[in-house]
Amino acid sequence: MTSVAVVVFPGSNCEYDAARALESLGASATLVFHSAQDLSAFDGVVLPGGFAHGDYLRPGALARFSPVMSALERFAAGGGPVLGICNGFQVLTEAGLLPGALQKNRGLTFLCQPETLVVASTRSVLTRAANVGDELVIPINHFSGNYTCDDATHRELVENDQVVLRYRDNPNGSRDDIAGISNRAGNVVGLMPHPERAMSSLLGSADGLVLLRGFLGLEPAFSGR
């Protein structure tokens, strides 16, 4: 059974959603406070959504200095699978574990709605169970979900197959319709949509299953391909 740490920052509010979704797929999910300094006992790590440290300065800017982030850097460097969802994605970019940044949505509007995502790459711990071109309905819930990066970074993302998910109908102004990216190795992934909220057709969509199943189905040391 896969053991996953769900990191809790002051202001996180999706940790229980993430843990329950993982446990529904057979994983053992443990809530780990941001003061933790060792993640070596876990097979995977999830940074959930919310408002880490109140999103003061900008989303994720303070969370990057939490003690757990040093442990997360070591975990990721060793090939461990890491998933940042919404605020977790913002934290990963602020910490330099993923390139680019998240800025306020186009139109300065908070968005909470289902969106159709298109799988752009299966070379990541999140999308390896999907197929390129698959369309997944996953909800979004953010104000600062507009992904941005400079031209050189965007070129590298495309050339290295690091764009893993795109919006079919871009809701927030993200560059190149980007909804999720990975690092070059493919073991660290961030996305703004919430797959843990798309686990049952009774709640609107079960398309989050293919993403979280992929995340849990990988070996801890993922080297990409």
Structure description:
By secondary structure, this protein is α/β, with parallel strands linked by helices. It has one domain (about 5-215): Rossmann fold (3-Layer(aba) Sandwich). It is built from five helices and eleven strands; from the N terminus they run E-H-E-E-H-E-H-E-E-E-E-H-E-E-E-H. The strands form two sheets. Strands 2-1-3-4-11-10-9-6-7 form a nine-stranded mixed beta sheet, with helices on both faces. Strands 5-8 form a two-stranded antiparallel ribbon. The longest helix is centred in the first third of the chain and has 10 residues, at about 15-25. It is globular, with a radius of gyration of 15 Å. The two termini are about 25 Å apart. The model is unreliable at about 220-225 (pLDDT under 50).
Classified by CATH, the class is Alpha Beta
Radius of gyration: 15 Å
Counted beta strands = 11
Counting H and I runs of at least 4 residues, what is the number of helices? 5
Q: Please tell me the CATH architecture by its name.
A: 3-Layer(aba) Sandwich
Mean pLDDT across all amino acids: 94
Topology, element by element:
Layout: E1 3-8, H1 15-24, E2 28-33, E3 44-47, H2 68-77, E4 82-85, H3 87-94, E5 101-103, E6 111-119, E7 135-142, E8 146-148, H4 151-159, E9 163-167, E10 178-182, E11 188-191, H5 208-217
Parallel strand pairs: 1-2, 1-3, 3-4, 4-11
Antiparallel strand pairs: 5-8, 6-7, 6-9, 9-10, 10-11
Summarize the structure.
The protein is an alpha/beta fold.
